[in-house]
Design brief:
The relative contact order is 0.10. The chain has helices spanning about 1-5, 10-20, 25-30, 35-60, 70-80, 85-95, 100-110, 125-150, 185-215, 220-230, 245-255, 280-310, 320-335, 345-355, 360-370, 380-400, 410-440, 445-460, 465, 480-495, 495-505, 505-510. About 65% of the residues lie in helices and about 0% in strands. It is built from 22 helices and no strands.
Length: about 500
């Protein structure tokens, strides 16, 4: 049975998983005695399971054939573009007061772990619909975890291209292993799911229990736990600042957001795992440096202004100072991991630092993103590290033109070929940013709003739409064309431009 499932198209398996997941909000709505919502999810689940069964039976007569990694990548692209059409069906039927396009964009946002919502008033959605948004985002995070290990890594995409010598989109054959048969893509997917899903679910469950102990309602705790692990930033109460767990809840969420800085926090199957430990991992070190350095810079601005004014007595307000510092640290890590949660003390941190435009800071952090093969978006810290190594070596050659680099073969490859590929990715990211911003503006969005929307979509940090601009952006008021462009940008941000180029390259398919 397992072997037969491995031969089915990945998009068909994901549709079946989505249909089974719909039973969860259906049972929740039935418990809440919201029968119309329960029926919407139950009937959609039956429809999906029936369709998957029919297609599966129709394919039973075909000879067994292993899927290629590029076919799995194409299925992942379909999952982000076509599967939300099905995911939006019960959401649309359950809400009953919105257009189907809005439901579709909401599901694309959830599945790509962007977390931008068209329904700013959380009271407009019943608890079961909030649960569905959080569950879709959680499954989207698990999907990118598994696909990064089983599909993107063999194709040298998603940040892995920085550490290998092969071209992006192609495997790197090793002569030492030519005599061994490579595992099928279906088997690698099954193995990655079997290894990562229990870790993902276990960490989510641990965080849920801790938030429950902290004072959150069970539903709020569950959605915040799922959103933290998926870095989606989805919340049924408008953010963690409105939750009942308070500072304790933020502290626990802070610890679990660290998983988005490096894959070595939960796995050791990447090239960077050749390092001796987590503290030697360049991604984690850069992330921690930003989490510590940026808040300290914001914190120091107040002291400098205080000393210039002669003190003014605020130096003694230690409690306010510590609260502002915590608000900066939590929010910086949240947007660096592209979760987008805002600390309850962030407003105090803004006032304390005197920063008039905090949106620029948060936009920059979200664009940097988290670690490779994590649920975080952005350009990834490993690419930043590759460019840093390259820049450091070029500065050394300016001083000593005939010097020889002291690093090993792996570091030399990262700062040469890796930096070259990272620079190409940065250029593609910049071009995508410019193009999508212009298109969004052409559909009627203000330039500032178009820029914020584009960065939020490409970095999969949807809450930027509510905090980065001068005023929150009402996504519901955008034109239909702008909403579709926004949805497409979220797919590009989640899959990354290099992966989409690999899909469009006919030479890779022929080979």
């Amino acid at each position: 049975m397992t072997a037969r499932l491995q031969e089915l198209p990945l998009i068909l398996l994901l549709t079946g998983l989505a249909a089974l997941a719909m039973l969860v909000p259906a049972l929740h709505a039935l418990y809440q005695q919201d029968h119309s919502v329960a029926q919407a999810f139950f009937y959609a689940a039956l429809l999906g399971l029936a369709g998957v069964a029919i297609v599966g039976l129709a394919m039973t007569g075909r000879p067994p054939r292993d899927r290629t990694d590029l076919e799995n990548l194409a299925s992942l692209f379909l999952a982000y573009t076509a599967l939300p059409l099905y995911l939006a069906l019960p959401f649309y039927e359950g809400l009953e007061t919105t257009r189907y396009l809005n439901a579709y964009v909401e599901m694309v946002s959830s599945l790509t772990t962007t977390g931008a919502t068209l329904f700013e008033d959380a009271r407009r959605l019943v608890d079961s619909l909030h649960l569905w948004r959080g569950l879709v985002g959680w499954l989207g995070g698990l999907l990118i975890w598994v696909m990064a290990s089983a599909v993107l890594a063999p194709l040298n995409l998603g940040g892995f291209e920085v550490t290998v010598s092969a071209e992006p989109g192609q495997g790197a054959p090793d002569a030492r292993f030519d005599r061994f048969e490579r595992a099928s893509s279906g088997r690698r997917l099954a193995q990655a799911t079997w290894e990562l899903a229990p870790i993902y679910a276990g960490l989510s469950g641990m965080l849920w229990v801790m938030l429950l102990i902290g004072g959150d309602r069970p539903l709020v705790a569950a959605i915040h736990a799922m959103s933290t692990m998926a870095t989606s930033g989805i919340s049924p109460v408008g953010g963690v600042e409105n939750a009942g767990s308070g500072f304790g809840g933020e502290a626990v969420i802070f610890l679990f957001m660290l998983f988005a800085l490096s894959r070595l926090t939960f796995s050791t199957d990447t090239v960077s795992s050749r390092q001796t430990g987590l503290l030697q991992d360049p991604e984690f070190r850069i992330g921690i440096a930003l989490v510590i350095g940026v808040p300290l810079l914001l914190f120091s601005r107040h002291w400098l202004a205080t000393f210039e004014d002669g003190g003014a007595g605020e130096v003694e307000n230690l409690q306010l100072a510590l609260g502002a510092l915590w608000g900066s640290v939590f929010t910086v890590l949240s947007f660096l991991s592209t979760s987008g949660f805002e600390s309850a003390a962030w407003e105090d941190a803004r006032v304390w630092s005197g920063l008039e435009t905090p949106g620029l800071l948060l936009l920059g952090l979200a664009m940097l993103g988290g670690g490779v093969a994590t649920t975080a978006g952005g350009v990834k810290l490993l690419r930043v590290y590759a460019l840093y190594l390259n820049g450091q070596r070029e500065m050394e050659r300016l001083v000593h033109p005939s010097s020889v680099g002291r690093a090993g073969a792996t570091s030399r490859r990262i700062r040469r070929q890796g930096a070259f590929i990272a620079w190409i990715f940065f250029m593609l990211f910049a071009l995508s940013l410019a193009l999508i911003t212009v298109v969004m503006a052409a559909f009627g969005a203000e330039f500032q709003d178009a820029l914020v929307l584009t960065i939020a979509a490409l970095s999969t940090a949807g809450p930027l739409t509510q905090i980065a601009a001068d005023a929150p952006i009402a996504l519901l008021e955008l034109s239909a064309g702008a909403k579709l462009v926004f949805a497409g940008a979220m797919v590009v941000g989640r899959l990354e431009t290099l992966a989409i180029i690999a899909l469009l390259n006919p030479g890779l398919w022929r080979s």
